[in-house]
Write a structure and sequence with these properties.
The complex is a heterodimer of chains A (about 110) and B (about 110).
Chain A (H helix, E strand, L loop, with lengths): L2 E3 L3 E5 L4 E8 L6 E6 L6 E6 L3 E5 L2 E6 L4 E6 L8 E8 L5 E3 L3 E6 L1
Parallel strand pairs in A: 2-11
Antiparallel strand pairs in A: 1-3, 3-8, 4-5, 4-9, 6-7, 7-8, 9-10, 9-11
Chain B lengths: L3 E4 L2 E4 L4 E8 L5 E7 L6 E7 L2 E5 L6 E7 L2 E7 L7 E8 L9 E2 L3 E5 L1
Parallel strand pairs in B: 2-11
Antiparallel strand pairs in B: 1-3, 3-8, 4-5, 4-9, 5-6, 7-8, 9-10, 9-11
Amino acid sequence: GQNIDQPTEMTATEGAIVQINCTYQTSGFNGLFWYQQHAGEAPTFLSYNVLDGLEEKGRFSSFLSRSKGYSYLLLKELQMKDSASYLCAVRDSNYQLIWGAGTKLIIKP
Amino acid sequence: ETGVTQTPRHLVMGMTNKKSLKCEQHLGHNAMYWYKQSAKKPLELMFVYSLEERVENNSVPSRFSPECPNSSHLFLHLHTLQPEDSALYLCASSQERGGQETQYFGPGTRLLVL
């Protein structure tokens, strides 16, 4: 079966750095997405990785290792507004998105 | 503002009611999706429409019936639902171009079935 694993919940401090991990087992791989979802709101696109390595976008970076079936989302200089759920999704060989259950990130002052 | 709107935002219905969820995308995309999101569970893809034709139906019960009259509008018709159908229903759209498209989501309809 296909599976995406990510921690259910994480807590971090304002101004700090946090890394949210995602591991996947899918039938094929055609890219990995990270989305942010604030409570009661739409998931919004953060990043897309299809090749190994680190993609940096301001305070957010996303890393991919296809050989390890592993990705992480790195958030720097955390702000209170970063409190949200972070969803990892992998596009399989049929170009269907397989979703993780999301990681709820709690930021404390 | 993501360019995808959904109405209503909240809906409470009894098991014998019939209601419809509406989604509209203002992004010029050619594919639209319905997802179900339950607490602490992965997003479940329900239906996919590409160029107004249904291309995916992931074993969804017949009490959910989608309709896509044009590339900008998507409906989900609901009838004789069960309490376990209570969830957040998300609509998304994308521009298909060989598998690299990003999906853009609406804010969802929070559905409670009593």
